[in-house]
Amino acid sequence: MLIKIASTWEGIRAAEVLEKEGIHCNLTLLFGIHQAVAAAEAGVTLVSPFVGRILDWYKKDTGKDYKGADDPGVLSVTRIYNYYKKFGYKTQVMGASFRNIGEIIELAGCDLLTISPHLLAELESTQGDLPRKLDPDAAKALPIERIVVDKAAFKRMHAEDRMATDKLQEGIEGFSSALVNLEQLLARRLAELESRAPAAV
Question: Which residues are known catalytic residues?
Answer without folding.
Answer: 4
